[in-house]
Amino acid sequence: MEVEGRGLTTQVVFYNVENLFDTADDPRTNDDDFTPGGRLHWTADRYATKLSHLAQAISWSENELPDLIGLAEVENRSVVEDLAGTSPLDGGHYQAVHFDSPDERGIDVALLVRHGVGEVVEERPLRVHLDGDHTRDVLYARLGSGEGTWHVYVCHWPSRREGPAVSAPKRLEAARTLREHLEEVRGPGDRVLIM
Fold first, then answer.
1. Which fold has domain 2-194?
2. DSSP secondary structure letters along the chain
3. How many CB atoms lie within 10 A of CB 139?
């Protein structure tokens, strides 16, 4: 997607990487399937192959890499940095923005900012408060450049698998969390990107 503003075009990609896990067991999450001895027999070779396929899919050309990449379903900062270091994405010298969220499955969202696009001047997780349940945070990053301020949000709303009666209130709470934060931080002339 191309985002136009003030005479500039910013190349933006959002990609659900569908369970980008490394091979190490994290005892704090339910990632046992993604280990060499787990149900999916997740090996270093399989992980490297997935990284390569994702880097190719996200990049439309080695000469024109995305400026901003929003990612859903990443396990941790390490896998985000591994993806950013995989050809051809490694040519973008991306800065990773990531926080571990309270999601039981251990999946989070992340943002990659290509070198030279802007400075990440603030980054934080926005906790979505659900009664008796945990979900992924909304990721917020404020980027500053000579062209002004960007407020960037990366979201992966709670799943719909429990049906609309259960999932709709959770999804609305995630949206409310984002909206309230945006109303607090947005200034005149600021640009907003919600992925």
1. Deoxyribonuclease I; Chain A (3.60.10)
2. -EEEETTEEEEEEEEEEEEE--SS--TTSS-GGGSTTSTT---HHHHHHHHHHHHHHH-S-TTS--SEEEEEEE--HHHHHHHHTSTTGGGG-PEEEE-----TT--EEEEEE-TTS-EEEEEEEE---BTTB--PPEEEEEEEETTEEEEEEE--PPPSTT-HHHHHHHHHHHHHHHHHHHHHH--TT-EEEE-
3. 26
Residues of the chain scoring pLDDT < 70? 1-8, 61-62
**What is the residue-averaged pLDDT of the chain?**
92
Per residue in 17-27, pLDDT tens?
999 999 999 88
Q: Cα separation of 88 and 104, whole Å? A: 32
**Cβ contacts of residue 162 below 8 Å, gap of 6+?**
none
Q: Give the Å distances, CA to CA, from 57 to 1, 22, 46, 117.
A: 14, 19, 16, 21
Sheet strands side by side (includes 191-194): 119-126, 138-145, 148-154, 191-194
pTM for the full predicted model: 0.92
**Which amino acid, 94?**
Y
Both structure tokens of 107: 């999946």
Is the peptide bond preceding residue 88 cis, with omega within 30 degrees of 0? yes
Contact call for residues 25 and 78 (beta carbons, < 8 A): no
- Token digits for 39? 């149900």
